[in-house]
Every structure is written in structure tokens, then in C-alpha cells.
Amino acid sequence: MKIAVINGSLSSPSKTYLTTSYVVDYLRAHFPEIQVSFIDLKDYNIVFCDARDPEEYEGDTKEVIDIIREADALLVGTPVYRGSIPGSLKNIFDIIPNDSLRGKVVGFIATGGTYHHFLAIEHQLKPLAGYFKAHVVPGNVYAHNEHFQNKQLTDDVIKERLKELADSLIDLARSINKKASGPEHPLIPRKSLSQS
Where do the NADPH-dependent FMN reductase-like domain residues begin and end (predicted)? Predict the structure, then answer.
């Protein structure tokens, strides 16, 4: 299984980086059989979407598209500015092909200064996942300033919720992949209505 984790913040260090990297460390320590790719947007030179065919992108942009395409599940972390996600992250959703997330499991982490923006996941991110026909895992996480001290994630409840989100992401992805591979035994055909 392949999981891609996106840090949608361009600032460093950021609350979004701290939460997404925490999940990456957890996944790598507890699920060594899973290939985890960490897309830290500040480390990539992503061009802005210009309506070209996604196959025509090159360099870092193509690399990010390919990582997302090949992933079985995606965990997206984003800061919330003015009640919305930053343009740098929205640009990722604009450049990936429409079928990149179809049938895949997606989880979300959002961070903000206060409690005010916790609904950004519901109003911004879940509709994007719906557009791409992805499955959103329950238990998404929102963290704010009070959960951090000295540029470190310190809140144990948030840490536990991040672990639960990672576990749920894997469980749902495995379940979907198992069902997609078909049943172990052929199904017995149902009688048609005319035969009953």
C-alpha cells in the first residue's frame, strides 16, 4: 500500500507541518510495510494550473502528480486562512487529473489560530473530495494554537486523534482495496424476478 501525505503550508515551521510530519513518523514507525510519501509543498516548485493536459507537466509538478496518482490513500494537511485553504494547496487539486482520487480514501488535517476555522474541513475539503469521487475517512482533525507550545505539537488528545486518523485511513483503504479485488469465491447468481 502507498500513502501520500501532503503538508499544504508554505511556512516553516508551521502547525500544519508539525501535525502532518507527526502522522508520517507514526505511519513509518508502526506500518513499515506501507510506503509513505511526504509531499511538503515548500520543498517543491509547483507551477500554477494553466489548463494544460496534466500529462504535459514536468519537473516537480509532474512528480507530485505521479505520487498522488500512485497512492492508495491520501492524507491532506492544510492551514486555514480567512476561512479557506491556501492557494498553493488548491493548486494541487487543480493540476491533478480528475480520476486521481477516484475510489481512494482521503483524510484531512486542518490547522488554524483559533477554533473559528474548524469547519473548513466540512466546507472546503470534503466538497473537493466529493468532486474527485474519493472516500473521506471519518475522524478528521483540527488543531489550533493552544495545541502547540514552543513550535512543537504538545496536546496529547490531538496526538491520539492523529494516530486514530492514520489507523482509520489504512483500515478503510485496505477494506476498499480488498473489495475492489473481488470476492474470493464466485457469487451465486441471483434469480431473476421472472423466475421467482
Answer: 1-145
